[in-house]
Design goal:
By secondary structure, this protein is mainly beta. 14% of the residues lie in helices and 51% in strands. The longest helix has 28 residues. 30% of the residues are buried.
Length: 251
């Protein structure tokens, strides 16, 4: 599982680049075809909403989506300790065909054992802060791509045309408040998500998401008349994973 946390980010980058290049190649190859044929399979869906007072349907083709707000509640994937990690996240995505540009902000409350390992240079008995509940802020930006593997796998069994997946690869900045020693850490972080969502209308989807996070943070050095802490002595490597429920709203 630890290895997964280190490789999931580059895998997401590779997936995004592959889909991006495939989309560009498709546009060049089919340049003389009807515009609708250039739209990827998973972007052909036409959503219809009944206008109840007037008795007709409004339609929306999802390749016309431009902006999406998402709200996520994350929890620990270990069901027997599901509240060990709790995260509230808000995201804003803007489409620049075929990719989406993402902004995100999240706040996490979690026990230390679910976020990282103690630096051996910390004072005190080993393992004494493992159960301490910590606070973490994470914000940043990245890229995402919407695709349709599940849609194509399930289409022979159910009406799956409104089910989509999205992969995200994001860079950010972490502010970590460690409460046992009352220390504040800061540093860069990586975040990658894989989500599956069902589109209900022009403006709304719900989904589930898996997230992997990795951050390298430091606190200010403690100095004395004779010594100054090294970078390694005041650093922490944080890594955590979550599942999440997602609500998405399109503008």
């Amino acid at each position: 599982m630890a290895m997964t946390k280190y490789i999931i980010f580059p895998i997401s980058i590779i997936l995004i680049l592959v889909f991006f290049n495939s989309s560009i190649a498709q546009d060049e190859f089919t340049g003389d075809l009807d515009k609708l044929e250039n739209i990827p399979y998973h972007e052909n869906l036409v959503l219809e909403d009944m206008v109840t007072n007037k008795g007709y349907y409004k339609s929306h083709r999802i390749d016309q989506d431009k902006t999406c707000w998402t709200f996520s509640y994350h929890f620990n994937p270990e069901i027997d300790d599901i509240q060990a990690i709790r995260t509230l996240e808000i995201g804003l995505s803007r489409k620049f065909n075929p990719l989406w540009v993402d902004l995100f902000l999240s706040r996490t409350s979690a026990t230390f054992r679910n976020l990282g390992e103690e630096n051996p240079n910390m004072e005190g008995e080993p393992g004494q802060l493992a159960g301490t509940r910590e606070e973490l802020m994470f914000f940043g930006a990245g890229l995402s791509y919407r695709f349709s593997w599940i849609q194509q796998i399930l289409e022979k069994f159910i009406n799956s045309s409104d089910i989509f997946e999205t992969t995200h690869a994001q860079l950010g900045y972490v502010q970590f408040t460690e409460k046992y020693y009352n220390s504040k850490y800061k540093g860069p972080g990586l975040k990658t998500d894989f989500s599956v969502h069902k589109r209900f209308s022009k403006t709304f989807h719900i989904g589930i998401k898996m997230s992997y996070n990795l951050a390298s943070v430091k606190r200010k050095p403690i100095t004395s008349a004779t010594t100054t802490e090294t970078s390694a002595e005041r650093s922490l490597l944080l890594s955590w994973q979550t599942f999440a429920f997602v609500l998405g709203f399109y503008l």
